[in-house]
Write a structure and sequence with these properties.
The complex is a heterodimer of chains A (114) and B (110). By secondary structure, chain A is mostly beta strands. Chain A is built from no helices and 11 strands. Classes of the chains: A mainly beta (114), B mainly beta (110).
Chain lengths: 114, 110
């Protein structure tokens, strides 16, 4: 069964460093999303992406964040200058055009900022 | 402000028991309600509900939506230890954005 994959599974970085989280959505999906979940807290929407541009973004998704689909398969989330409070699990999700309600999630990347 | 509230926050039952998890919502432009199961990492999709009163079933799990009273329930019958997880409710608005509840942590004791 097709699935969303994410790399790396874990990343530890120093405060102020840039990180790039990578996702490979399901191949025929057209809509892509990033969410984050700080330990013990709610899943929070960050951004949605369609047709090579951002469709929606939340207040969390400030200028430190950017997303890109550099080729036909990868979907990346870049955090330019990480802060301690960026430590969280980051989930990528994708959905197809007909079933946009059904978002399929990747396994997540655990980011720890020291 | 849109919000999704789940109850209880946590629940401990014995194997074989039946549980009912609740999700109420106040979302301005409701499109659908989704249930996810979260074990160690990513939420895995369980159900999507768009119409009131139509039960969705998958094995021992079932769910129903009431759009008049703005809530949904997730039932799990004959629970097993593998059902232990956090169950997340999310409401999708007209922009396809998911608004998440805090989850119900379900622990099934053998």
């Amino acid at each position: 069964e097709p699935e969303v994959t994410q790399t790396p599974s874990h990343q530890v970085t120093q405060m102020g460093q840039e990180v790039i989280l990578r996702c490979v959505p399901i191949s025929n999906h057209l809509y892509f999303y990033w969410y984050r979940q700080i330990l013990g807290q709610k899943v929070e929407f960050l951004v949605s992406f369609y047709n090579n541009e951002i469709s929606e973004k939340s207040e969390i998704f400030d200028d430190q964040f950017s997303v890109e689909r550099p080729d036909g398969s990868n979907f990346t989330l870049k955090i330019r200058s990480t802060k301690l409070e960026d430590s969280a699990m980051y989930f990528c999700a994708s959905s197809d055009y007909r079933g946009r309600e059904t978002q399929y999630f990747g396994p997540g990347t655990r980011l720890l900022v020291l | 402000e849109d919000k999704v509230v789940q109850s209880p926050l946590s629940l401990v039952v014995h194997e074989g028991d039946t549980v009912t998890l609740n999700c109420s919502y106040e979302v301005t432009n409701f499109r659908s309600l989704l249930w996810y199961k979260q074990e160690k990492k990513a939420p895995t999709f369980l159900f999507m509900l768009t119409s009131s009163g139509i039960e969705k079933k998958s094995g021992r799990l079932s769910s129903i939506l009431d759009k008049k009273e703005l809530f949904s329930i997730l039932n799990i019958t004959a629970t097993q230890t593998g059902d232990s997880a956090v169950y997340l409710c999310a409401v999708q608005d007209s922009n396809y954005q998911l608004i998440w509840g805090a989850g119900t942590k379900l622990i099934i004791k053998p």
